[in-house]
Write a structure and sequence with these properties.
With 435 residues, the protein is of the alpha/beta class. Among the domains are: 202 residues, Rossmann fold; 27 residues. The chain contains 16 helices and 13 strands. The strands form three sheets. Strands 4-5-13-10-11-12 form a six-stranded mixed sheet, with helices on both faces. Strand 6, helix 5 and strand 7 form a beta-alpha-beta unit. The N terminus is likely disordered. The structure holds pyridoxal-5'-phosphate. The site of pyridoxal-5'-phosphate has 19 residues, from helix 10.
Amino acid sequence: MTPAIHTHSPIHTDGTFSHLQCKECGATYEAKAMHVCELCFGPLEVAYDYGAIAARVSRQTIEAGPHSIWRYREFLPVQTDNYIDMGTGMTPLLKANRLARRLGLKALYIKNDAVNMPTLSFKDRVVSVALSRARELGFDTVACASTGNLANSTAAIAAHAGLDCCVFIPADLEAGKVLGTVVYAPKVFAVQGNYDQVNRLCSEVANTHGWGFVNINLRPYYSEGSKTLGYEVAEQLGWQLPDHVVAPLASGSLFTKIYKGFQEFIKVGLVDEKLVRFSGAQAEGCSPIAQAFREGRDFVSPVKPSTIAKSIAIGNPADGVYALDIARKTDGTIESVTDAEIIDAMKLLAETEGIFTETAGGTTIAVLKKLVEAGKIRPDEVTVVYITGNGLKTQEAVQGYVGEPLHIEAKLDSFERAYERSQTLERLEWQTVVV
Ligand SMILES: *Cc1c(COP(=O)(O)O)cnc(C)c1O
């Protein structure tokens, strides 16, 4: 493995963040690698000096910045300008007219992190931030507990940064996610157990080895990376907030940080104040937050996951209660859908918009459809749906549910016969016909 980098001379700028703060009791801590409050066991969050940010940042300075998440550097927890930039972020915000018409919406946008860099999921955002901070804190080995995409991102970005890397995954992950990790040559441990068991094991490993686990002891820094999904949408909408967002929920971190991103932009005056409705999506086979929402509970009861949407299959979500709170106070909803609905929605998005998303994206589109049908999203709301991962990584999910090529001989008459037949059959039928 590549030796750790200790050679760079960091450029110290006055950081706009100063410390970590407990989300529950407000206790403050030095900005080190820690994630739990020693007084009340609440989660720690990065605290910023918004006056300093407001004095330094304008729409123009951001627009003149790098074409990546680092254009929002003042809002991110790094102390130096020596961050890792693989071109992560600034993914397309597409006006989805064909899907909108199909669903009965007037202004639907897709934030397409299926094409994020370098590993085709939103996790590249959180890992770019976590590993940049890990380097500042002096770690030479980084690690993660992953449902798949995080493993891909951590392994790839660690390789680029020259950091040693250990990855822990549940043993039953999709083939594309496993291959898309081992190719970067980290140490990969496939654990017999589900994600929640992997995560528990990693908490123990984090205590015994001095490694930087991106989503455990570095979690306060890691989770800040998701705010860029909020900033980019605001900037791409012409410095305006949408009316409604729909995003997937695993631990609930991404969802809560999009909200934090919007609030921060309001706070420093980059956008006008507005109440954005936040709706969340889960797969029925792992829907502890949706269940709590439905039952009007303010606590989340852990479940044992069983769904094809493995990347969002977290049975004991760390930020579940914060996600619930945001959905409720913004007049949003948290809804779940079946595996069959997820597959249909993956196909719907591909056929209407030309975007092949993974199961998490299928979950989000299926929930979008359900909310529109239930009248919970009004047709005229400017709605942004977050597509967080790429379908090429979860091919087994749609295998057998999509068409096959028409097999023909390399002769014109063979083609003509097959083509004629394809014309006479209903579209859905001919997709599965083999001539
Ligand atoms: C990890 C992940 C999420 C959600 O993550 P949170 O834990 O809720 O932040 C959503 N979509 C995909 C594709 C993911 O990999």
